[in-house]
Fold Erythromycin biosynthesis protein CIII-like N-terminal domain-containing protein.
Amino acid sequence: MLPVRKVLFSFAGGIGHLNLMLPVARALRNAGHAVGVCGQANIIDGTSGFDAYFPCGSSAPPPTDQSTGILAGPDLDHEFSVIGAYFAGALATRRLRDVRQSIDRWAPDLLVCDEMDFGAMIAAEQAEIPRVVVNVIASGALTRVEHIHEPVARLRAVHGLRDDPGCTELTRNLIVSPVPPSFRHPDFPLAETAVSVRPEFDRDTGRQAAVDWLAAGDEPGRVYLTLGTVFNTESGDLFIRVLEGLRRLPVRVLATVGMNIDPASIPVVADNVRIETLRTPIGRASAL
């Protein structure tokens, strides 16, 4: 029988970064290992199934936007700057501190973090514990060495780690990719250390009024509309434009918005459209 291990799960960013790691956490816990979690307090508060919790930041829910505004044009340079300046820069500095404190307190045998949690990766290297990285960007095309090398190099230097010009440390250990390989951008193939998996999620067997509504009615088609966990707050009037088009079709439409959008701010009213707030950050489908 294998000895019981302690595994710390760490995520940077929002609920989408944690959700893709939950099947791994569930599998380890079902195998008898202890699992802990370190991340945003307002996301992990109220979750169940972990043996240790290391919340960071405020537990207050983010404010609800009363309007989605106007959809801005795509700006890849802006997205790259966010990855470099924020995820690999300011956030990585905080994450290194928080994750290292969690490691020192709980003494895990292994760290599992999402691919944007650069500070957690450096914390594991500094603490000399192995790590596993879980991919959360399906295409793999956002994290580019030329945009993250400088902030990562500065952080490594501050903490006495050797320079890593090609950011090879980020892919040195096992990488788990829980998305279909066909989603991957051909110019950014998976690293040699990566394995593709098909995660299994718990299925909620309870009745949901919105799901029952979607299944009812005389419309020949059913549509579920979501804009994800972050883009929904950056998508301007895209919800409105899509729903305006869908309401004219012979379909029944269920749209879910995140915690930060008031459904009443989306002025699309039709008998075949229902808009709901996904109120629980981690519902049954994601809980351990």
